[in-house]
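Action item from last week, closing it out:
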Amino acid sequence: MRKLLAIVFGGLLVLSVAAPVGAKEFGTIWIDGEAYRTFGNNANVPAGTGTDPIIAFTNFDQGGVAKYAPGGGSHGGRWQVWMATWNDPADAELLTDFDDVMALAGTDLTIVRAPDADFRCPVLPGNAHGTS
């Protein structure tokens, strides 16, 4: 009986952290300096209806930077997409905190709203870089 319970519990644990079948991995999202992993789902998010700000970079390869972690003011991963472009790509550096990104807006970064890119996806602790 214990062995059966252990197998059932182990299976439930795996299912609780695995992405749903057919989900697309989006990689790393940074929130308050912590790395999260995420995957997309087929939820309909009409353009311009995202609620949680997330910044994607157009000319620097890094994950997105979001304002809210799960539970901390988040609306369940309904992302309001903003696009950031380094004004001088030579100044590009890894940014992992939303407030740090916003502090560079207008000087080092140009940030514009991209309502057609709004999407929904959950974020989970850890990422492909080994952070947990």
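Closing note: The first helix runs from residue 2 to 17.
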